[in-house]
């Protein structure tokens, strides 16, 4: 059957490089529905609540502040070792349409646990809407993707295998989801070490969360504990920040002054 050959676009080439870099990573996954009623109540009272991606980015980073293993990566050079990053660095999968083609590009957010939730959300929204050249991470990754194949392989190898460079290029965890398109249990693939994905909010006020991780870094028991802690953070710290943001914009009542 005769078809039509098509060139591989830069965004699609990026995914090819990403899949090549992810080969050989021994991923394991754990999924669980999280009960988030307090968070949903706080979101319902907010005028413009942050998106779910920003919510999970900050919540996971807060958990990682108390769990150093969530800031640990596996690095091969100069010899195989685990490397603990001083802070969390998130990579958020941004769905875009470039030149009529649907694609996904990674937005880097450093130390989201120290940012207001609205700022994390603003960075994600900017990455969705701004031209590629206006997003530093996109410019950086597209510049590398334009390189010839041998140089691309070398640049990815350096970024992946030196612990110090992992935070600069690939972060300490990734967040992705297809909830905007109807949800589903997504088991994404990246070079690791941690990938968080979430579904849609269910009628019973739960949301299904999947964590995939590099088994060389940690085991299932710590991740089970992380999911429990993640549920707590969503319903406490994140919900409280949403309520505080609402109170900050609500007009204060004016007392009547008797004369």
UniProtKB/TrEMBL annotation:
InterPro entries of this UniProt entry?
CAT-like_dom_sf (IPR023213)
* UniProt-recorded Gene Ontology molecular function terms: acyltransferase activity
Keywords, A to Z, come to: Acyltransferase, Transferase
**What Gene3D superfamilies does its record include?**
Chloramphenicol acetyltransferase-like domain
Q: What is this protein called?
A: Acyltransferase
The organism of origin for this protein? Bradyrhizobium centrolobii
